[in-house]
Amino acid sequence: MTQKMKGSRGLLLIAAFKLIKGLALLALAVGALKMLHKDVAAEVAQWIDILRVDPHNHYIQEALSKLGMVDDRKLKALSVGTFFYSALFLTEGVGLALRKRWAEYLTIVSTASLLPLEIYEIVKQVSALKIIVLLANIAIVVYLVMEVRSKRST
Asked: Helices H, strands E: what count in the chain?
């Protein structure tokens, strides 16, 4: 397999990852807007009942208590931030899928700039998911830096 094919696969994998994250965030942003002027905790409790999730679960109870404090102002702020990150991830994903050099640089800068925040979140409260996300983002940055360098030398 040629080096170009390997690089293409890696870029397409990262593009797919970014597109999935972007679409998930877009759905979250739209969902947050749909919750405006509603009791968020009651709406989520209704979904928990529909999905037949144990409502007495410790994590569910904790989430519901936090959701009870969410007001319209917080929902709007969450939605704006989520739309922004969705647009960023979708732009990166499409650019990488189209093998655009600017998308590689954009992804390197945006992903690397979030690493300190991810490390802070891990220090604040360790979780396996946070560590996996951090390692995936580090791998993405390292891979793309190597891609950019190899393209520059050819």
From this structure: 6, 0
Each residue's pLDDT tens digit, 48-100? 788 787 878 888 788 778 877 778 898 899 899 999 999 999 999 999 999 99
Q: Where are the domains of the chain?
A: 3-35+70-153
Q: Which residues contact 91 (CB under 8 A, 6 or more apart)?
A: 103, 106
Half-sphere exposure of 102 toward its Cβ, with a 13 Å CA cutoff? 4
Which residues have CB under 8 Å from 7's CB, separation 6+? 147, 150
Which helix (DSSP H) or strand (DSSP E) does residue 129 occupy? helix 128-153
pLDDT band at 4, cuts 50/70/90?
Answer: low
C-beta of residue 7 within 8 angstroms of C-beta of residue 147: yes
